[in-house]
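Lab notebook page, bench 4
Experiment: in silico fold of construct C2
Operator: M.H.
Input chain length: 99 residues
Purpose: comparison with the prior construct
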Amino acid sequence: MNPDVIHAMTDPYLLDVREPAEVEHARIDGASLIPLGELAERVAEVPTDRTVYVFCHAGGRSARATDYLEGAGLDVVNVAGGITEWYRLGLPVTLGASR
């Protein structure tokens, strides 16, 4: 799904599957972070009562995460193009280290 459609939603649940070092460079405020390598052990943290929009840098890792989460029975959508496309579209991204 395109980032602009997701951004227009009221309070979408965003799941970032990038590594913490990547998040230090650029992040979407309010997104939850579970790196792809930790997803299997932390899957219980992902909400089961709503759609989860999964993103990474460009879409590859989030596609793998989406496949895994769908297999676990969750309602998930891959954010097309990841945070790179989100930024390219001019949607809000916080750059630099977190507070």
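Observations: The mean pLDDT is 96. The helical segments are 3-7, 20-25, 39-42, 60-71, 82-88.
Next step: discuss at group meeting.
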